[in-house]
Write a structure and sequence with these properties.
With about 180 residues, this protein is an all-alpha fold. The protein is about 70% helix and about 0% strand. The chain has helices at about 10-35, 40-50, 60-90, 95-120, 130-150, 150-160.
């Protein structure tokens, strides 16, 4: 079997770009189906750059859209690098797998809560299910990419179930002290 060298930065950027592209395509398809192409990134860009929470239809500004797209890809690249680093560490130390899983769940719940708050604050201008669905699809795409690139991680799940990685510490002999 050929051993591949994994660069955390290079692989992380690729992982993040895959997630960012999937989410951008998701937004475009979702918005086009609603008859409002580029609506979601425009609204998110106005939140990010102008702090605009005003309800109602707002015009799409190319500068805001371009700025948001740049921030979107940079943030996804950073998240991809962090996720790749965690995967690389998990292949060396299987006890970290549960921490990665819990971290992803907590981060997703935090993001979903923040999205819900922005949706409510903007008078439902931000399409809640589009953003949450896009985020979920993007995370799954990044996870799938990393899963396919790390057979050692896949094999570790055959060896021990998630949560069963660590060994219990030995108990001292004798009866428990009170």
């Amino acid at each position: 079997m050929q051993v591949r060298e994994h660069s955390t930065v290079r692989e992380g950027v690729v992982t993040g770009v895959i997630g960012a592209l999937i989410v951008a395509i998701w937004y475009f398809v979702f918005d086009a189906a609603s008859g409002r192409p580029l609506y979601t990134p425009s609204v998110l860009g106005k939140f990010l750059f102008h702090g605009s929470l005003r309800p109602g239809i707002q015009p799409i500004l190319p500068s805001v859209l371009l700025g948001y797209t740049l921030v979107h890809f940079v943030l996804f690249a950073l998240v991809g690098m962090g996720l790749t680093l965690l995967v690389h560490q998990s292949t060396r130390n299987p006890t970290l797998r549960m921490g990665v899983w819990l971290g992803l769940v907590v981060a997703f719940c935090f993001f979903a809560g923040m999205t819900f708050m922005l949706t409510t604050a903007s008078g439902n201008r931000l399409p809640l299910w589009s953003v949450i669905g896009g985020s979920l699809v993007g995370v799954l795409a990044m996870a799938g990419f990393l899963w396919s690139r790390h057979p050692r991680l896949r094999r570790s799940f055959d060896e021990s179930a998630l949560g069963a990685e660590g060994r219990a510490p030995p108990h001292p002999p004798g009866a428990p002290r009170v």
